[in-house]
Amino acid sequence: MDEKNQFSNFDLQQIAKLPAEIAAFAEKYPTDILNTVNFRDKFNFSESYVPELIEIYYGNIIHSDGSDISIMNGQLKHYKISNVNSNIQSIAVEIDGECAYIEVEGKEIINRLSGLVLPDVVIEPSILLHSVLKGDKVAHQGNREVLTDLLDLSKRQSHLNNVYSISVNIQSELNQVEVSQQFLSPSNTSVESFQQQLYFLEQQLQEQQKIIYALNIQKPSEIILNLCFDLGKFKQIFEQQKEKIELLKQELENVINCSNHTVKHSQLQNWISSVEIKVQQIARNSYNQIITVLIPKCETLKSQLEVQVKELKNKIKQQLTNW
Predict the structure, then answer these.
(1) By the number of CB atoms within 10 A of the CB, which of 12, 111, 221, 302 ranks highest?
(2) What kind and span of H or E run contains 78?
(3) Are strands 90-95 and 98-104 parallel, antiparallel or unpaired?
């Protein structure tokens, strides 16, 4: 293997057979040129061919987690914005595992599209939002873990009520809720799923508030310690959700501000533009929902947490004073 050029002797022999103006791109765009060698002489896709998987790669890079855009049977499956601020000089389109189109620095070096009809693309908001968050450490905690933590806390509070007979009628609504599988799925990232989780957290905080206000300072210190533990857990869950929402907001801003990519092939250009226009419209809608719904709800929950921390501190001070 020639380390400098990243090509084997066989690769170099095949590249030498390419037109000189294409072979000249080999060192700068090795992946695209190797694909050119492998697919340049293949037959064009026919007009009647129905693509199953369409993948778009920007920037002559083979990503460990796949293409920049992936479309399966007319539905968006993956959308990456890693190249949002890059000056893209190459684009490659694969159809069902075969390279169908490559353009480098404005020069078309493979075009097997012929009269192929590219499909209308359906984009589910949850798929798009999951894609823009995918790969970030903060996104690794799925909805299932967050809701499981909330349900565990709900059971803990219910137990405290039974053991210490606090003199208010408190029954956690979360114990009665059947959490839908769509909200438990870690891959379901949507404004609605975040809203549902914040709603669950708000319900729990309301129950916690009742317990704190009804707390008799003569109760054993164990219950106060448990309440402190629960409040700390609520704060942790809240901060995790807030961080994910802020990250999602930031990534959606990147999508909205991303410049559309251009290619010389007019049909392909129109098709890519139609996909990116749909993506940006969904991103705008989701961004507006985050601004108008999720962020105000986060501020409300933050205030509730601050009130409870203050009230619990007062209870602890009163208990210490009475010792």
Answers:
(1) 111
(2) strand 75-79
(3) antiparallel
58, 89, 104, 138 from 26: Cα distances, Å: 17, 14, 11, 38
2 DSSP β-pair partners: 7
Q: What is the DSSP letter of 141?
A: S
Residue 238 φ/ψ, nearest 5 degrees = -60, -45
Q: In 3D, which of 59, 67, 60, 9 has the Cα closest to residue 31? A: 60
What's the token pair of residue 209?
């508030």
Average pLDDT in the chain = 79
Q: What is the 3-state secondary structure (H, E, C) of 209-229?
A: HHHHHHCCCCCCHHHHHHHHH
- For the record, the structure tokens of 243 come out as 């961080």
Average pLDDT of span 237-252 = 90
Work out the average pLDDT over 169-195: 52
Q: Would you kindly state where each structural domain of the chain is located, as residue ranges?
A: 9-119, 137-322
The 10s digit of each residue's pLDDT in 86-105 is 567 889 999 999 999 999 99
Output phi, psi for 36, to 5 deg: -65, -45
Residue at token pair 């709603």: 199
